[in-house]
Every structure is written in C-alpha cells, then in structure tokens.
Amino acid sequence: MRSSSGSETLPCSxxxxxxSSARSALLSVRGGWSSLPGTGAKxxxxxxxxxxxxxxxxxxxxxxxxxxxxxxxxxxxxxxxRIEDSLIGRNVSIYRLPVRPSAxxxxxxxNSEVGIRW
Length: 118
Known about the structure:
By secondary structure, the protein is an all-beta fold. It has a single domain (8-95), classed as UDP N-Acetylglucosamine Acyltransferase, domain 1 (3 Solenoid), CATH 2.160.10.10. It has no helices and twelve strands. The strands form four sheets. It has a four-stranded parallel β-sheet, with no helix packed on it. The radius of gyration is 16 Å and the shape is globular. It starts with 7 loop residues before the first strand and ends in a 23-residue tail after the last strand. The relative contact order is 0.12.
C-alpha cells in the first residue's frame, strides 16, 4: 500500500510501519522491531525482536536478535541461538564456525561480563 508521500506500509507483527521503498528488503524479516534498520542494512532470514536497534550497513543473515543494539558495519551470520540483551560494536563480525573440537575464544575489555549457557 502506498501513501501520498510515496512510502510503503508493511505489516509488522500486529502494527504497521511506514518505510521507504528503498528498505523493502525488510519483507524477509520475521518478528517485530521497535525501530527501522539503518540505511544500507542487509537482512535475510533473520528474526529481529522488540527493543532492537540495527545501525547503518549492518548485515544480519539467518540469526535471531532482540533487546539489543547493533552498531554500524557489524555482521552477524548463521548463529544457532538467539542473541539477547547485547551491545554489538562497530564493524564487529559474529559468525558460526563448524569446527571440532569447539572452544571459546574471547577478547574482552575491562569490566566485561560474559554469560555462557551449558
């Protein structure tokens, strides 16, 4: 459906959002969002839950994320579990490695906190 301003209204959960036709790639997104993804965001096969902010030029593929902020240029692909309550910095890459034996590898700054489910 087109409005007089040329924007397109697409369904989002139980409410509608107005988006420019340049962002029509959002049709492949499942779930709802509290703000629209930034300019140049590439999103496919992703669930974007509530209270999530997606920055400019972010790539999300086959992943689930909610209650999180993803800053510009970040890439998140093929993550098996949902990402929640997270802050993902600029130009960060998060991806799944199908390597055995598996191991955790961390680069953490001062006062960081990591919770691991096992």
